[in-house]
Amino acid sequence: MPELDPAFLNLPLPMLADAALTRATELGCDHADVRVERLLDSYRTFHDLHLEASTDYETLGICVRVVHSGVWGFAAGIELTPDAAADLVDRAVATAKVSRPLTPGTIVLSAEPTYPNASWVSSYEINPFDVDDSEKQGRILDLCDRLLSAPGVSHTSAVLWSVQENKYFANLAGTRTTQQRVRLQPQITAVSVGDFGFATMRTIAPPAGRGWEYLIGTGHDFDAEIAQLPEQLAEHVAAPSIEPGAYDLVIDASNLFLTIHESIGHATELDRALGYESAYAGTSFATFDQLDTLHYGSPVMNVTGDRVVDHGLSTIGYDDEGVAAQQFDIIRDGTLVGYQLNREMAAAKGLGRSNGCAFADSPGSIPMQRMPNVSLQPDPAGPSTEELISAVDQGIYIVGDKSWSIDMQRYNFQFTGQRFFRIENGKLAGQVKDVAYQATTTDFWRSLEAVGNPSTYLLGGAFNCGKGQPGQVAPVSHGCPAALFRGVNVLNTQAEGSAS
Amino acid sequence: MTAARLVEQALSIATLPCVVIVKERTEANLRWANNALTTNGEVRRRTMTVTATAPVDGGRSSGSVTRQVAGPDVVPSIVAAAEQIARSGPAAEDAMPLVSGDAAIGWQDEPQTTSIDILAGLANQLGDAFSRARSQQELLFGYAEHSVTTTYLGVSTGLRRRGVQPTGRLEFNAKTADLSSSAWVGVATRDFTDVDVALRHAELTSRLGWARNKISLAPGRYETLLPPGAVADLMIYLHWTAGARDAEEGQNAFSAGDGKTKIGQRFSELPITVRSDPYFPRLECLPFVESLATGQNVSLAFDGGLDVIGVDWISNGVLNELVRNRGQAARTGLEPTPPADNLIMEGGGTASLDDMIARTERGLLLTCLWYIREVDPERLLLTGLTRDGVYLIEQGEIVGAVNNFRFNESPIELLGRLTEVGAGEQTQCREWSDFVNRTVMPPVRVPDFNMSTVSQAS
User: Which of A399, A482, B16, B67 could be joined to A419 by an S-S link, Cβ 3.0–4.6 Å?
Assistant: First the structure.
């Protein structure tokens, strides 16, 4: 069972919190919370068998958020002394005063029980920061070497990104939490260069809330994936170009997770639905007045939000407003029934308790409503992937994510993938290429005919979901089964742009 | 301890050749939505990056560690960690001796800073704008940010450099109360003294007025005017992918195959120049390499402190240069061409966007492009959406707002199809505004911009 990092626990955490919260009381703050955070990022990139970049980042700092005279104020710094912590409160109150003319209402937060001395550590076996660097790089380079030795592979590129995140939180209400998460993102790409130009194919192993064990056999078989990649890339290079048109799609979980992220995850963020992101990330077609009525998808569509699933990238014990992690319904039997919340929005919209979706990506960042693990539920008695494919006469089976884009209200999206297989009369008939599928979110999810059984389920995800100004990134996972969609518009990407 | 002394402390401890960078950054911001403030903040950071280089089997490796640094106590641990990483890595193919030189005059000067006070005047103007918006049944959204970063760089060869980079931007969005129409303007600034909120609000209100007449158009190819901000988003992405090594290896859109690049190939019949210049007036940026990596898959781990000079990436319509570090330059016998933190496009035109609208018989005017992502790296085919106002021009006049579209286009191929390039002006891009703030771009005319499908977003 992993334990909290002593190096973080040795910081004067309670002393800093006491100093800041005492000052907040003196200045008459209605609310105050303090976060001390340490973020370790280890980033290694390789080109063929050479090092490209080898960079470690440590972000350590403290921030204070207050509600003063009904207005938010925030300040952050790096000096971890009681005096500096108290000074941050003064600066946060100063920002609140500058902001007073711009704030017509009064900030109110939803109620939450207090957690006076809680701690939480994510589920992993081997902390990657405890593994010798040469061992980690050696493992990646060995996988690259095997790829480069295979026919048709001209180059490789590889990334190994490891993160350890420690958060200490305290607020005036009495909550004090100490937490630690570990996550890993290994990614290897094979490149084929020839008379045809060049083509790439990347591993589809998702980033995971796991430790070093992930690369050596737990949770994914990298050796098997690398062994198959050259042949898959060669078939891709030789594959015919797709004829554009409407196709039935069987979408593997390794691709569908990203479509869920963009068309459901972001669309059901209440801050977007309320317009807070209008000028940047955008809004949502799933407006608040449609809660409990919006026909989002077909009746087999059931989507949950959670911050509790093992190895989920958004999983945590308590959010950055001191709210305990939960699981909740977002879409039930195809109907929108819930949003992702923070305490301010939960109170403003009369929704009771927050469901714990506040997150800040660093001690210099303001907590905002960020995505939990948003997951499409499998059908316990549903079909296998082969059975989904067998239900299609003319279609495409899509594996792995690649390019993605969606509009600012989450209507119109376009996705590509790593591999596309033609389906003919219920059977796979070789790869095709130049495929992009384009749809409007509700049309797409209403065309969902079947979801696969739990054997088709995968927890995909990303480290770098962007949102907010100043920009923040958040790690998030999405579980989903393979699924069958009918009559989706497919483009030939070679026919786009200048080619007409 | 001052930043310069922290650099000297790290260099004095180091047992390997290394580059030490301390950055003092202060930042203030305001964000608003629905005619009210949503968040604000003032952040101070001081980070130290030590990049050590070490001999390893087959060459030299590098290791870099970046941490917040409140005082001298943590410096030895940063140096030690960087050296440990450098010793444990494989050889880097771009390894070179570190950049040499002397201490620049004034390199130990105190850092410059900013604070929330620089936005106080803007906040007052915004308060007035919110009142006006309520009376006009408009909703205002947006973001203002100002930062000042002072960079101190020292190399174990003796080179010392310092630079100050102020960066500011206003992003301002207005919507009608029913959310059916949206307009946006972006302003890049160094100090907010040149930002007039009332003027920009009036511009937004005018655009919302254009949108009272709503017109539905089908997907297809349209003559389209791209304003400078939209051009910036496309050209920035083109520049980010313009790495020399990948081109020579056949791995990007600038490859000509057989180990050759497209340098010397004509991209446009128009006299288009795309360049960077750290001394370009109002777009001044640091004239030396202070970042380890670029977006072009180019590692600058061994190039810290290297002079960044002005480079014409495209000159008179012809591809002239690609981004190249010293390692790649040495392998190919060419000059290193590290990128600057600005981008300028010029095409010899003098027309304003208004002039170009007046000369348009029938076409579309975009406001900005959004969610731009790469679809096909071989052609640099990009997809994305129009956003916050697509307007129909007929007989030289804007006659209404049309629906949004998804586009699929390659900026390289677009350069070859442009029929007009207007006068360059300083602009704030939309999609990449978190990363790029210093651009001069022209409006351009595309005779057949590919609007692939309709987006219902408004």
Answer: A399
